[in-house]
Amino acid sequence: MAEPLLRVESLVKRFGALAATDSASFEVRAGELHALIGPNGAGKTTLIHQISGALRPDAGRIHFDGQDLTALPMPARVRAGLVRSYQITSVFQRFSVLDNLRLAVQARRPGAAFWRAAEKDTAARDEALALLERVGLAERAAQAAGSLAHGEQRQLEVGLALAARPRLLLLDEPLAGMGPEESARMVALLQTLRRETTLLLVEHDMDAVFRLADRITTLVAGRVIVSDTPEAIRAHPEVLRAYLGDELEALP
Ligand SMILES: Nc1ncnc2c1ncn2[C@@H]1O[C@H](COP(=O)(O)OP(=O)(O)OP(=O)(O)O)[C@@H](O)[C@H]1O
Questions:
Q1: Domain spans in the chain, listed from the N-terminal domain onward
Q2: Angle CA(91)–CA(92)–CA(94) in degrees, nearest 5?
């Protein structure tokens, strides 16, 4: 089989006596939508932080596209194509939606355009307009980012991440706090994105996870129990016992 796009190998992260990541290993294949699930406190966010470069593991390795990224800082990982979509903090609230995206496009190519008046950077503007369309915010272009509804802010965050041209996009709970309509819009956006880029998703909404994911990795107490297809995960005795028993009963 081809080398996976991301290979996490025996990763360990301790907080005092707690092993938040306990020798975790899993792989994300190129082109798949891979979901990371597990109960509260299982270590999903800690694992995503180590993959994005926000946290340094105590042991283990992270390989991306055949390259060992374990010691590389976040900007170098972003340049390699490993990009995390951030929550609200990365959005400039007072800037328009279009300007947020244009700045993100310009930030991808430092030196090339920052010296130029932003209004004259038509290539960045055109790319930002295309991103607006992709994330479904074309009608919000001129609006201040801070005035967007919660779900639209999350769409904008995905747009900001896409500006970096990811080969693997990490999404931490993209559906968190959304109502049914906002959720449906984000799920539709993820369905579009999966055709263009590989996705690694942490998500508590099991209905969405089981509809979207090609493969699922289940984490319990920092340990990977299994990585497999949704069908196999549904039937896995240890996963059912540790986490999914009640959640899956409710699914269609
Ligand atoms: N900076 C930290 N210092 C100490 N303990 C931490 C730190 N970050 C996380 N933890 C602990 O590590 C464990 C894993 O936390 P983490 O947030 O990664 O879990 P999670 O699976 O993302 O949880 P949730 O689904 O609730 O978001 C938890 O017990 C948490 O309390």
A1: 1-81+166-252, 93-165
A2: 135
Among 13, 22, 44, 225, which residue has the most ligand 1 atoms within 8 Å of its CB, making it the best to mutate? 44
How many Cβ atoms from other residues are within 10 Å of residue 171's Cβ?
Answer: 25
Q: Compute how many other C-beta atoms are within 10 angstroms of the C-beta atom of residue 111.
A: 6
pLDDT tens-digit map of 99-143: 999 988 888 876 655 555 655 678 888 999 999 999 999 999 999
* Token pair recorded at residue 76: 């170098």
Q: Kindly report the pTM of this predicted structure.
A: 0.91
pLDDT tens digits, 20-52: 999 999 999 999 999 999 999 999 999 999 999
- 69-99 tens-digit pLDDT: 999 999 899 999 999 987 545 688 899 999 9
Q: Pocket around ligand 1: residues whose beta carbon is below 6 Å from it?
A: 15, 18, 20, 38, 40-46
Question: 1-81+166-252 maps to which CATH number?
Answer: 3.40.50.300
Atom of ligand 1 nearest to the CA of 46: 18
Q: Are 201 and 219 in contact (CB under 8 A)?
A: no
Residue among 245, 178, 171 at smallest CA distance from 212: 171
DSSP bridge pairs for 160: none
ipTM exceeding the 0.90 mark = yes
Task: Give the strands of the sheet with 18-28, arranged side by side.
Answer: 18-28, 6-15, 59-64, 67-68
